[in-house]
Amino acid sequence: MRTEQIKLKFPVTVAGHEYKELTVRSAKVRDQVIAQKSASDNSDVELVLFSNLCEVSRDVIEELEMTDYYQLQQAYQGFLA
Prior knowledge:
It comes from Halodesulfovibrio aestuarii. This is Phage tail assembly protein. 51% of the residues lie in helices and 26% in strands. It is an alpha+beta fold. The chain has one domain (3-80). Strand 1 (3-14) and strand 2 form a beta hairpin. Helix 1 (29-38) packs across helix 2. The radius of gyration is 12 Å and the shape is globular. The chain starts with a strand and ends with a helix. The mean pLDDT is 96.
């Protein structure tokens, strides 16, 4: 399985744990299906998907600075190429 390490420019702390980097793995079709079924609406699909691919709670993804979230989006897009 392909993975990419993302070093956060702005580390976040959630539930007493500091996240300085995230490891994101490539997605499978089932990941997209799970995200679509689990999300409350279309705007939540990507949050659910990224939390699953990084194996962290959704709270961690929601706390990311946009610059770090953009890094995560870029890594995900790189897997699709």
